[in-house]
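FORM 12-B: Structure-to-Sequence Request
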């Protein structure tokens, strides 16, 4: 009969498709992982198809995987219920888009501290494609990113949508009614990195219009994009919400444009794993914080602020 440790090892080999990465995850050696998998296969039959670079579950392995998930989930639930401190303990490895850092991340941390005082938060700021890869590799538990990500192993909880606009320093672009795409791209453009949605949309707009922009600058740092815009190095393609203070102070302005840009849709995305039972609670808290922020933003607009 398989013990909990063997089921845990099996679960991570199946999840990460790698004996080596599973050994790192469960803090043991690769030979120890191989020994436990061999014992399981001696008892239950072949569980993995060995390939050149990774492993994949066989049909028998998929059946065992379902039971392993249930066992590990029950173990985590039992541990939380019987914790001597009476509260959930652990670390939430959180990936965050820098856009959210500028909007409501601090409110989320405050709400987490109140709701889950035993959970510390380890924050990594990154772009959405990198966070998706980090989720798949179990390097982070939860990500606030541009989503949703349609993978069966991931759960998505909607957070909010935010518009993107053409934004520049006053005087950089002449004010003469709504600007055409051609008029806009006579100036350098500044936006998120090349493998993000805003950059891909911008590139596709230019290609479809058969136009050649002078330059498209990209940066993973939103603060850098904003500074470049203020210093008149080009037109920023970013959400106006992240530069509210600069817009109010007159350092930047939203350009009137014929070409609209797609909203950014953010989700709280996490892997469906049995060992981090508090991650779904953190995603729910993020939804509440995002809803409060969106309601406040709507109230400000209604009040003309």
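FORM 12-B RESPONSE
SEQUENCE OUT:
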């Amino acid at each position: 009969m398989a013990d909990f440790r063997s089921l845990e090892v099996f679960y991570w080999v199946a999840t990460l498709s790698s004996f080596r990465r599973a050994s790192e995850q469960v803090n043991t050696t690769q030979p120890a992982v191989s020994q436990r998998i061999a014992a399981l296969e001696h008892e239950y039959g072949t569980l993995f198809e060995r390939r050149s670079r990774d492993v994949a579950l066989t049909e028998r392995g998929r059946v065992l995987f379902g039971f392993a998930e249930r066992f590990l989930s029950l173990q985590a639930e039992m541990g939380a219920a019987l914790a001597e401190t009476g509260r959930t303990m652990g670390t939430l490895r959180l990936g965050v888009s820098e856009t959210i850092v500028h909007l409501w991340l601090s409110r989320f941390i405050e709400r987490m501290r109140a709701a889950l005082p035993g959970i510390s938060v380890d924050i990594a700021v990154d772009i959405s494609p990198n966070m998706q890869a980090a989720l798949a590799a179990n390097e982070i538990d939860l990500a606030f990113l541009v989503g949703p990500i349609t993978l069966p192993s991931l759960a998505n909880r909607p957070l909010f949508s935010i518009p993107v606009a053409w934004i520049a320093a006053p005087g950089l672009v002449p004010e003469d009614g709504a600007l055409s795409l051609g008029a806009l791209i006579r100036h350098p453009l500044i936006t998120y990195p090349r493998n993000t949605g805003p950059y891909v949309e911008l590139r596709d707009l230019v290609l479809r219009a058969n136009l050649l922009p002078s330059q498209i600058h990209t940066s993973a740092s939103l603060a850098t994009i904003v500074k470049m815009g203020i210093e008149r190095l080009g037109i920023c393609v970013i959400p106006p919400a992240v530069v509210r203070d600069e817009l109010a102070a007159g350092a930047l302005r939203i350009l009137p444009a014929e070409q609209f840009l797609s909203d950014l849709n953010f989700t709280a995305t996490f892997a469906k794993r049995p060992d981090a039972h508090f991650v779904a609670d953190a995603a729910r808290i993020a939804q509440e914080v995002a809803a409060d922020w969106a309601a406040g933003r709507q109230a400000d607009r209604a009040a003309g602020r």
